[in-house]
Automatic annotation (TrEMBL):
Transport found in the keyword field: no
GO MF term list: ATP binding; ligase activity; metal ion binding
Parts forming coiled coils: none
Organism phylogeny: Bacteria, Bacillati, Bacillota, Bacilli, Lactobacillales
ATP-grasp domain ranges (all copies): 121-312
Keywords carried by this UniProt record: ATP-binding, Ligase, Nucleotide-binding
Protein name, UniProt field: ATP-grasp domain-containing protein
Species this chain originates from: Streptococcus gallolyticus
Length: 392
């Protein structure tokens, strides 16, 4: 009888909806071996019940402590088969541990391509995808020259970063000079031309050989950067129908970035004037927020179970029918709405999946309240979003 596979889970309690990975892996017969800095008693009861063992470290930023935790598991359970956090923040930690313990998946040498936007641009271009013009800069003078070349407005963001944090739309020379006063001196920034377009994504999961077994997409009511700047409502959704050109470019990206037995989240601009796609960035982990749960509601399957099957037997068994559009609708604490939560339940109860409070760390974008719903048509979805976000 073969031994159980040993799956080391980095920070398995965060975000909370990712705890289901431990549940499904444990149910599939894995040794689920958790490492984090949270005290054991603070983990949810459901997570504790589905971790084979938990090793608490004092500081997850101290590589030696995390390395010793993995070494302990290897000594006790045998060769480590997988190390994964599914979290952008720990991508480099995961890779370093995989390198040191010779575990399948991205290694340290792969990080330049999947963490830095300049290298992403290079790979996009080598594979025939259009990208926003731009480059990194290392001095104020370099930034001024680059802005002159690109023309205002420009976008400035960390060369290695996540989401819309520390990202700026600079509209003039004066705003650029002001940026020099508050930029983080420890961060390498990249400047890009402004693309007037809507962000769309190509997301999914690949098998052990890099074949896509499931794909989906996200569309947004407005750019995340605009939501943060205006501190306003937004909604985003998993559509039933995914454009052919997006699927074609997404498949190129999966191959170009060697995505194997991983979730992926690729971002593109859909240019408003020409409708063409411009590659923005790659994220080799699941989309954030509740998106992975939205896939389940959109397809009536269990992506966590399918992932466990892929890791164990390289099998994906769910049928992809996409019967629903699934939408996340934010409501902000600083707004006064025309309709209460009870009103929303009364008018759209058949469509509502859940209504929940959002932790403060995510509320700037996701709102203090989040409504998750599904509809069969886009028209129904937009009607629900407009009703939920209508102002008094």
């Amino acid at each position: 009888m073969s031994r159980p596979m040993n799956f080391v889970m980095i920070s398995p309690h965060f975000p909370a909806n990712f705890e289901t990975f431990a549940v499904r892996l444990h149910e599939a017969g894995f040794h689920t071996l958790g490492i984090a800095d949270a005290p054991y008693h603070e983990l949810s009861e459901g997570l504790r019940a589905h971790l084979t063992e938990y090793y608490r470290v004092d500081n997850m930023e101290d590589y030696d402590q995390v390395y010793r935790a993995v070494a302990y598991f290897a000594h006790k359970y045998g060769r480590i088969d997988r190390i994964e956090s599914h979290n952008e923040y720990w991508l480099e930690l995961d890779a370093q541990l995989r390198t040191d313990f010779n575990v399948f998946g991205y290694k340290t040498d792969d990080m330049l391509a999947v963490k830095t936007k300049r290298q992403m641009k290079k790979i996009f271009s080598e594979h025939g995808l259009k990208v926003a013009a731009g480059d990194v800069f290392h001095s104020d003078d370099e930034a001024r020259v680059l802005a002159e070349k690109l023309g205002f407005p420009v976008i400035i963001k960390p060369n290695s970063g996540v989401g819309a944090s520390d990202t700026y739309k600079i509209k003039s020379s004066e705003e650029l000079e002001a940026f020099f006063g508050y930029q983080n001196p420890k961060v390498e920034y990249i400047m890009e031309e402004f693309i007037d377009g809507d962000i769309v994504t190509f997301d999914g999961l690949t098998d052990h050989d890099g074949e896509i077994v499931f794909y989906s997409s996200l569309e947004y009511s407005e750019a995340v950067l605009d939501t943060v700047e205006k501190d306003d409502d937004m909604y985003y959704y998993v559509p039933r129908t995914i454009p052919d050109d997006l699927v074609a470019l997404g498949k190129i990206c999966v191959e170009a970035f060697h995505v194997k037995e991983r979730f992926f989240h690729f971002e593109f601009f859909r240019v408003k004037e020409t409708k063409e796609l411009v590659a923005l960035e790659v994220n080799c982990r699941p989309p954030g927020g509740l998106t992975i749960d939205m896939w389940n509601y959109s397809n009536d399957f269990d992506i966590f179970r399918e992932y466990a099957n892929i890791v164990k037997d390289n099998l994906f068994e769910a049928e992809i029918l996409r019967p629903y559009n699934v939408v996340y609708i934010s409501r902000k604490a600083n707004q006064t709405y025309a309709h209460s939560i009870d009103d929303i339940w009364a008018n759209f109860g058949d469509n509502i999946i859940s209504i929940q409070s959002v932790p403060g760390v995510f509320a700037k974008i996701m709102g203090e309240e989040g409504i998750l719903a599904r509809t069969q048509t886009i028209e129904e979805m937009r009607e629900l979003a407009q009703y939920a976000q209508a102002k008094a």
